[in-house]
Design goal:
This protein has about 375 residues and is α+β, with helices and mostly antiparallel strands. The chain is built from 7 helices and 15 strands. Strand 1 and strand 2 form a beta hairpin.
């Protein structure tokens, strides 16, 4: 494959981790309107004590943004299949594909037997035929030596989504606004475990949930991460041809006024994504045997997470394309607990982490009002 160096670079969590981005010629790339208004309203309401507002210091900004509008901004979205990242190791330059612990997102293959036809609204079948495979994929991706031993993977909050919303089929609308799934730093330990336990699926419905074990592990300083696993579930196993999922791995670059911030806080919500290095990615035409995993939280501040995401608007040529089907997808989240203890200088779930000014109840009301306003 012939490669060329794109003019921009991919930045790691910290400035010293900036890595060059390689994009193959002719790769899928589109200029697409992205609506970040809800995200910026959320940050202004919850973290105004960090200096964010909804006019002069919006949390998410882009190079293409004139600074005047607060709604949709036209941004380049790149095909993540055709992206490699240059990473030096022991003085040797290597090319690597996106990965959960490298870039915060990863595409994987999940193979089903020909005899298996999953009804995605049947959570018992999902727990039997899909989650064991997903568990193995996550384990293989995140386990690396003694520092990557996983003790728990708990799946929760399953959701079938579609452009053609059908409440009789338990289908929810696709998420068109840029968001992250949850602000985990706002929760205490019991709050996180309650969230997972209340929405747990799979075999946990029939046996005990390891509540006390997980609470003890997090309290002892052990690493935990939250993964969103997203896949297309088109009729007849067709590829997802429109309303692809877009991902924004936020890149944080140090500068003079924030270099004194402890490393454990050099991430969301203290740091803002740098628009020079934060780029949107997508995986067009995902097959029924592919699953896109992306991090929504990682306790290690030096590992990229907090991936902002949304459904990319379907372009007119996609909608008019012959035999194009409205998007249907299934997503589920996973709480992953590791056996390794986070070094204090990298532990973002620390006692002095920033907390929102709104209580969880107030935050819920705020989000409900946002949703009502945008109906």
């Amino acid at each position: 494959m012939k490669l060329h160096l794109h003019l921009s670079a991919f930045a790691g969590p910290f400035q010293s981790d900036i890595r060059d981005e390689i994009i193959s010629p002719g790769a899928w790339r589109k200029l697409i309107p992205i609506d970040v208004s809800a995200s910026n309203e959320f940050m202004a309401a919850h973290y105004r004590h960090l200096g964010y507002d909804d006019s002069n210091n919006r949390y998410l900004t882009f190079i293409q943004d004139s600074g005047q509008g607060k709604e949709s901004v036209m941004v380049d979205v790149f095909d993540a299949r055709e992206v490699f990242f240059k990473k030096g190791k022991n003085g040797i330059l290597q090319l690597e594909k996106p990965s959960l612990d490298g870039t915060g997102f990863e595409l994987a293959n999940v193979l089903f037997d020909d005899s298996v036809d999953i009804e995605w609204t049947n959570m018992e079948q999902v727990g039997t035929d899909y989650l064991p495979k997903l568990r193995e994929i996550i384990t293989n991706s995140l386990s690396s030596g003694s520092d990557g031993i996983i003790t728990h993977i708990e799946f929760y909050h399953p959701m079938v989504r579609g452009e053609d919303v059908d409440l009789t089929q338990k289908t929810s609308p696709i998420a068109r606004l840029v968001h992250i799934d949850s602000d985990f730093g706002a929760h205490d330990i019991e709050g996180i475990v309650n969230l997972v336990e209340r929405n747990a699926i799979g075999f946990r419905k029939k046996c005990s949930f390891p509540r006390e074990d997980i609470i003890a592990a997090i309290r002892d300083g052990k690493r935990f991460a939250v993964i969103n696993a997203w896949k297309g579930i088109q009729a007849n196993n067709e590829k997802v041809s429109r309303a692809h999922l877009g991902l924004l791995p936020a890149q944080y670059v140090e500068c003079d006024h924030n270099c004194c911030v402890p490393k454990r806080l050099r991430c969301f919500p203290t740091f803002q994504p740098d628009p020079r290095f934060s780029r949107w990615y997508g995986y067009p035409n995902m097959s029924s045997n592919e699953v896109l995993m992306f991090k929504q939280y990682d306790r290690r501040a030096d590992l990229l997470s907090d991936i902002w995401h949304c459904s990319l608007p379907s372009t007119q040529d996609e909608i008019e394309q012959e035999n194009t089907l409205p998007r249907r997808s299934f997503d589920v989240r996973a709480l992953v607990v590791f056996d390794d203890i986070i070094p204090k200088e990298l532990d973002r779930y620390c006692d002095d982490r920033p907390r929102p000014v709104l209580t969880l109840e107030e935050s819920g009301c705020f989000c409900d009002e946002q949703a009502e306003k945008r109906k």
